[in-house]
Amino acid sequence: MSKQQELIDKLSAEFQPHFLIVENESHMHRSDRGINSHFKIVIASNKFEGISKVARHRQIYQLLEKDLQTDIHALALHTYTEEEWLQAGKNVPPSVSCQGPSA
Predict the structure, then answer these.
(1) What backbone phi and psi angles, to 5 degrees, belong to 60?
(2) In angstroms, rounded to a whole number, what is the distance separating the alpha carbons of residues 39 and 24?
(3) What angle in degrees, to the nearest 10, is found between the helix axes of 3-15 and 53-63?
(4) Most buried residue, 56, 64, 79, 93, by most Cβ within 10 Å?
(5) 53/74 Cα distance (integer angstroms)
(6) Stated pTM of the model
(7) Angle formed at CA 14 by CA 9 and CA 20, multiple of 5 degrees
(8) Domain ranges in the chain?
(9) Which residues pair with 78 in a beta bridge?
(10) CA 64 to the chain's CA centroid
(11) How far is CA 57 from the centre of its chain?
(12) 3-87 to CATH, choices 3.30.70.120, 3.30.300.90, 2.60.40.2250, 3.30.70.260
């Protein structure tokens, strides 16, 4: 199973999202961690109802703690309740290419 699918499975089981996209953005970054180092997660779940964006991010970091200690170097998190997602027009935020300087 790919790291991307692992993340989808973990997030789906924990948050029962209305919307979820996990994009592997490793090709857009220079890193010595390999092809599964950078991911963008866009998730809309009513489990985020009534909690701050910071608390939402903490929940995801806790869930993915082991992945962050080994494979994953960076996560771009975009967290919404179902209502916030609808108000945002169901738009996936654009990604930033960060090639950085060569080593």
Answers:
(1) -70, -45
(2) 5
(3) 120
(4) 79
(5) 17
(6) 0.83
(7) 60
(8) 3-87
(9) 42
(10) 10
(11) 9
(12) 3.30.300.90
Phi, psi of 42 (to 5 degrees): -115, 120
- What is the C-alpha to C-alpha distance for residues 13 and 29, in angstroms, rounded to an integer? 29
Looking up tokens 């991010």 gives 57
Integer Cα distance of 42 and 78 in angstroms: 5
Number of Cβ atoms within 10 Å of the Cβ of 60: 21
Token pair 């494979």 in the structure block, residue: 71
E runs forming strands in the chain: 19-24, 38-44, 74-80
- In the chain, the amino acid numbered 91 is N
